[in-house]
Amino acid sequence: MRYVLSAIFAIFLLGACSPEVGSEGWCKSLKEKNVADWSSQEAKDFPRHCIFK
């Protein structure tokens, strides 16, 4: 039973991962996010991956 619960927890944990940097979903989520809440890495990656493809 413990192994089953561990497997289910792992599936939920992995399913909640953020989209890959540069993907369509990642660009969309950053567009919806307040610019003040972006990390410095996100601010650096956004133009490179979402504007200047």
Question: Can you tell me about this structure?
Answer:
This protein has three helices and no strands. By secondary structure, the chain is mainly α.
What is this entry, summarized?
By secondary structure, the protein is mainly alpha-helical. 66% of the residues lie in helices and 0% in strands.
How is the secondary structure organized here?
Blueprint: H1 2-15, H2 24-32, H3 40-51
Globular, elongated, flat, extended or rod-shaped: what is the shape?
elongated
SSE ordering: HHH
How far apart the termini lie comes to 48 Å
Mean pLDDT: 84
Strand content: under 5%
Largest sheet: none
Helical residue percent band: 55-70%
Q: Features of this protein?
A:
66% helix, 0% strand, 3 helices, 53 residues, mainly alpha
